[in-house]
Design brief:
Dockerin_dom_sf; 18-stranded mixed β-sheet; Type 1 dockerin domain; 16-stranded mixed β-sheet; single chain; 3% helix; mainly beta
């Protein structure tokens, strides 16, 4: 038996029972064992009706589901474009198909299955607030709007309506496109494990009713739970994507990435409970928010805590303006650690917000201190390597022996405007300064009784002028003099000792001083420790210092050495408010030579543990050795004999962004201002020869010893080299050099001028 329609629009109405309809050709098919032809419209009953389209099936009319959980099945067809128009009059949804599968659309449908052979099926929601649930593991795909629910499957592109759409994405096993269209749409990837998203997801936020970008289309990605636990991952957030970076300490991931366009205003990523790195390139359209989660802010965890690394490489079509100063604002401080806040940038780039982040790049401090000489000042200039502008001064209290034996008549006067407030009472002759003249007046009035002298002459306020007042006078001046009297200068390095994300300033004493060390806060420059003796007080030739993670625990240690009198390198660990000695080892240079050694540190082989680079001090043939943090000799570097015996200094930095630090070798006194380098690599060779790059200065300037340090000043992942001249330097200019790895040479990329009263610029 068959139903054969004729001219006009024919319809078959099914029974009130579960019914399977098969549409095999245009307006042709079978229902409950009966064939039909030339029937344009199909209407189900009050139970479940399944309308299955076979390979060539289509209808020129309409499908009416009526009551029951009715289904459209397009699995045997090619890609479908299904658009919902409203909720059905009975239940389910009404809609249409683009391309003629159902010519007049459908009504009261509760479930739709797309093509299983195609990968571009599209489903569009109605103009109403809606919730899309996407879970390819269960699997479960639903669309909810106006208290109705549509179950769907095999659709790769989902599009919301003109109102708020929330896409609740729990897992994806195939590539998907999600379109928010109008209003403020929310794309929520909250399974707790990004590895659940094995299909690439592309998102378009859409525009509002006026065709303008929405105010708050947003994406949330949660990687805190699942199978990740304490895993360490590197995340990459770029203007159009969130992906992951392969590392040598974390397992590979199946996360295929989330990609979006300029209509997305906000993207948040919550990392695992491990120690993670968030590499973020700011966007012109999207505000990024990263949350490091655990480890807790009360700890200084192995690995140093979650790391926010901003990538400020130029972004087409507009170059990103450099950070014009410290544009980071902390909004929350927990247990003394600043872990929540926001980075802002010059227009047009959007801010980067952060929470539970313990470490940051682009907060590097370039410290410049007066290196040596009897008249060296106890100051450290703190410079932004990004803008080459001065942040602040830090005053150390290193000094030589107290100045009791220093004649007041030889000491410079405290001039008007520069006189410490504590000495104002000692200006007994009212000339606006404290000078030997005031002391002479005291001497002239010795032993005078009350009423016979100016009260200011009674320095100790005991009712008479006597020798005790002379002593008090001298003591007050000596105290102030000691604050400004350093005979050997200061040398520095920077490192984050307390896990607050900001480097502290670690200062050691220069020549003519007992070996001492002191730490200053990286935020306000205030002392964080007393001045601590770290060696034989009789060795007054000066200390060298460098910081690094020598044992791979994520904590910062420091290495120190002496300019003369010792070949030892000593490792120290910061504990509370002081340094404790971990170990010492001999650097192995000529044991009969009196010269000392100098230290620097860097990760030469990319294993996340720093090596210690030891170079010869004055009076020795030039040489460089590489040691592990445990003191094991890893390699020896041959240095050009032209460096001479004036000592050499080294610094390290990743010049080409390959993950391996290079060693930079700088000439000492009368070394011709030579610069050489040793490329970093995965394997540290037992023997290598430094590559000579040439002289950095000419003429008399080439006679002065050099100091250098590297910083990633522009956030592009490549370190820049900053060069200054040490004691008896002819130049007060610190040069910024950029590496060109195409020709293996440096070129000048800026400079700043230090205090021309300084006798040498030590860079740290």
């Amino acid at each position: 038996m068959a139903f054969i329609g004729g001219a006009g629009t024919d319809e078959i109405v099914g029974p009130n029972a579960a019914t399977d309809w098969q549409i095999s050709q245009k307006n042709q098919g079978q229902v409950r064992g009966l064939n039909f032809e030339q029937v344009e419209n199909l209407t189900g009953g009050t139970k479940v009706d399944t309308f299955e389209f076979l390979t060539n099936g289509s209808l020129s009319g309409k499908i009416e589901g009526l009551a029951g959980a009715d289904i459209l099945d397009f699995t045997a067809l090619g890609a479908q474009d299904v658009r919902l128009s409203d909720i059905g009059s009975v239940d389910g949804f009404d809609g249409t198909t683009v391309g003629g599968t159902i010519g007049m659309g459908f009504a009261n449908i509760n479930a739709i299955a797309g093509s299983t052979s195609a990968t571009t099926d599209k489903l569009t929601g109605i103009d109403a607030t809606a919730l899309w649930t996407i879970d390819s593991q269960t699997p479960s795909f639903t669309y909810q709007a106006k208290s109705r629910t549509l179950v769907f499957s095999n659709f790769e592109e989902l599009t919301g309506g003109s109102k708020v759409d929330k896409f609740d994405v729990k897992a994806t096993s195939f590539a998907m496109i999600l379109n928010g269209e109008g209003d403020d749409d929310f794309f929520n990837f909250h399974s707790g494990d990004l590895d659940n998203y094995q299909g690439k997801v592309t998102i378009h936020g859409g525009a509002d009713d006026n065709g303008q970008p929405d105010q708050r289309d947003r994406i949330y990605l949660d990687d805190q739970g699942g199978d990740n636990g304490e895993e360490r991952f590197d995340y990459r957030l770029e203007p159009h994507s969130v992906t992951w970076l392969q590392t040598n300490f974390a397992p590979d991931r199946t996360f295929a990435g989330v990609y979006f366009d300029e209509t997305m205003e906000f993207v948040r990523l919550d990392g695992t409970d491990g120690v993670n790195r968030f590499s973020v390139r700011p966007s012109e359209f999207t505000v990024f928010y990263v949350d490091g989660n655990e480890p807790g802010v009360e700890d200084c965890p192995p690995g140093g805590g979650d790391f926010l690394e901003l990538d400020l490489a130029p972004l087409p079509p507009v170059d990103l303006n450099p950070v014009t100063g410290p544009k980071i604002t902390f909004t929350e401080i927990v247990n003394g650690r600043q872990t929540k806040g926001v980075w802002t940038f010059d227009a047009p780039h959007k801010e980067v917000q952060f929470e539970s982040i313990e470490r940051f790049n682009l907060l590097d401090k370039l410290t410049v201190s007066d290196d040596a000489g009897f008249n060296s000042l106890p100051l450290i200039d703190v410079i932004s390597p990004t803008t080459l502008t001065k942040y602040s001064d830090v005053v150390t209290n290193f000094s030589s022996e107290p100045l009791e034996a220093f004649s007041i008549f030889d000491y410079p006067v405290f001039q008007p405007g520069a006189m410490p407030a504590s000495l104002e009472r000692l200006d007994v002759n009212n000339d606006g300064m404290v000078s030997p003249k005031d002391l002479q007046i005291l001497l002239d009035h010795l032993d005078e009784q009350p009423g016979q002298y100016d009260p200011r002459l009674d320095a100790n306020r005991d009712g008479s002028v006597n020798v005790i007042d002379i002593s008090s006078f001298l003591s007050a001046i000596i105290i102030e003099a000691n604050k400004n009297h350093v005979v050997g200068g200061v040398r520095t390095t920077t490192a984050d000792l307390n896990c607050d994300g900001l480097d502290e300033i670690i200062a050691v004493s220069g020549a003519n001083l007992a070996p001492r060390i002191q730490v200053f806060n990286g935020v306000n420059g205030e002392p964080m420790s007393i001045s601590q003796t770290i060696g034989d007080p009789s060795n007054t030739y000066g200390v060298y210092v460098s910081a690094g993670d020598f044992d791979g625990d994520g904590m910062v240690e420091i290495a120190t050495s002496m300019e003369r009198g010792s070949q030892a390198v000593t490792i120290w660990k910061w504990v509370d408010d002081h340094f404790e000695k971990v170990r010492s080892f001999d650097s192995g240079f000529d044991p009969n030579a009196s010269g000392g050694v100098r230290v620097s540190t860097g990760d030469l082989n990319g294993d996340l543990t720093d090596e210690i680079i030891v170079s010869t001090g004055t009076g020795r043939n030039p040489g460089v050795s590489i040691f592990s943090g445990a003191g094991a000799l890893l390699g020896v570097v041959q240095v050009d004999a032209a460096y001479g015996r004036g000592g050499i200094t080294t610094t390290t930095g990743d010049l080409d962004g390959d993950g391996y630090d290079e060693i930079l070798i700088l000439a000492g006194r009368r070394g011709g201002s030579l610069l050489s380098y040793v490329p970093g690599s995965a394997n540290i060779p037992a023997n290598s020869t430094a590559i000579l790059l040439g002289a950095l200065y000419t003429g008399d300037d080439a006679l002065s010893p050099l100091s250098g340090v590297t910083k990633d000043a522009d956030g592009d992942g490549d370190d820049e080299l900053f060069i200054g001249q040490l004691s008896d330097g002819r130049s007060s200019i610190v040069r910024k050099l950029e590496w060109n790895d195409a020709i293996d040479q440096f070129f000048d990329d800026g400079f700043f001028e230090t205090d021309d009263e300084w006798t040498g610029d030590f860079l740290g």
